[in-house]
Amino acid sequence: MPEEIYEESQLYRIRHSAAHVMAEAMLERFPEAKIAIGPPIEDGFYYDFELPGAINEEDIKWVEKRMKKILSQRHEFKMRAVSAAEAREIFHDQPYKLELIDDLIKGRLDDNGAPLADPAESLTIYTQNKFTDLCRGPHVQSTRDINPRAVSISLRPPAGAYWRGDEERQQLTRIYGTAWETPEELRDHRARLEEAIKRDHRVLGEKLNLFINDSMVGRGLPLWLPDGATLRDTLERWLRDIQIERGYLPVVTPHLGNIELYKTSGHYPYYADSQYSPINVDGDEFLLRPMNCPHHCRIYTSQPRSYRDLPLRYAEFGTVYRYEQSGELRGLTRARGFTVDDAHLFVRPDQLQDEFKGVVQLIQQVFGSLGMTDFRARLGTRDSQSDKYVGDNALWEEATVAIVDACDELGLDYHIEPGEAAFYGPKLDFIVRDVLKREWQLGTVQVDYNLPQRFELEYVDRDNERKVPVMIHRAPFGSLERFIGILIEHFAGAFPPWLAPTQAIVIPIRESHNPYASEVASLLKARGMRVKADLQDRNMRSKIKQHRRMNIPWLLIVGDRDVTNRAVSVRLRSDEDLGAMPLAAFADAAAANIEAKSQEIEL
Predict the structure, then answer these.
(1) pLDDT range class, residue 388, cuts 50, 70, 90
(2) Which pairs from 1-6 meet CB under 8 Å and 24+ separation?
(3) Mean pLDDT (the chain, rounded)
């Protein structure tokens, strides 16, 4: 559900209100606790507390039971405007609320963006039963609007969060909860959570020998094992071929650059908090690159450009480095070093529309080939109240109009979210829902009038005038690491044959069948398949069990009859037995399946 629609929904109000009820129950259990914030989030809510001691499952059970009792008593949520002085009196013993009050007063503006004449009167509080919180809402009318049987909370496991997301500040205890409109929705949610645990890419990545994280190498820096590297390489080769067909030119740039490069682009100091400290080399400062686009801009400037040279489409699988806080790291989906399937298109203004549409169509092709057809588009625009953006307002308007026109021409369903633009231009993000209905932001396309000006990019137009090109940033995957992590969970590690690191395994019944098994493997390899023959001295049934567990699509059993008839007995990883078929027929059917990028393993 798009964020702005979610925030207007009854479900959002239910969860926001349930967070307040949870805080009330927690304060009854821990009277000395200090309360921080408790917002609704996707699929639930949380509240952060500074607790006087450790919390355990017994505490959580008590709090949940108390919440249900409070909900059954039908208390109204009452909103009241208060002055800053009154708010400080109400929360005199709550330091986190006092800090929020100060920040709200300093930053509060009226609807026209001007400072309020009396900002102190703009604060609001909500009270239900014996609990009062500093809050702007919205909430349900009363606790009778929340079904106690559709609410639950958990430590999930014990979670810590730094105040204001700053690891230099106090670490708080975050309690998660979820609330739904009906008990049936809560049961469905719990079932999805159980399935998500089974699909966790960190667990499957180790089980399937795809990647590892090593403490000596460093957190957030995954090591790809042979099967994982094969999966990654398959995706890279596939996208590389698609890009070449569409006129992209491959480039390769270094993993670091002089700090002046990123000062020119604006990435430094704009992204200083997420960048590693500069490295001093012979008196010059270098950065591990946080972005690839400045490097591509310098390639553009390496020679004069004519209007006939455009569009220029540079593509690179470029590894970038970001300093992510330890608590935010999560396997492949949040890493400190990751590879972006990056491309930058340098186009004339009259080419922008067609080039932007071409990128959107490429992204749709990528998602469709992977069976990820449940997605929506989000147009991130500039927030007029923020100072984080660079560039001229008129150019921002041109870029935004170009995206809107292209989306309308393609008949693309999209929604607009102010404040979600990149710092240099508006962008179109693709939000994909996986089989568990979780949303992931993947592909992105951005129109940029600013970096070309910052790097003084030019081309000579047909009228012999020097003009500035428009730049399009795009990445269908977003990052290979994150995309593969999502794919692992989407497919539960059971990849379609064209993606599977090993597409078929040949299993001889007895040792005497080993020569034929090797011959079968060699023939299929010659057809371009990724095949192995398991010639280990082990029981055939144990081999079948092992390779099914590794999610290999096709298990080819060979015995006396198969040797005689030059056949293979085909069993699927689902344990469905397709019976014997001629080796040549299997090779043709499997090759066709792989070539078609089929999601199915049946032949």
Answers:
(1) low
(2) 2/376, 2/378, 2/415, 2/417, 3/417, 4/415, 4/417, 5/415, 6/40, 6/42
(3) 90
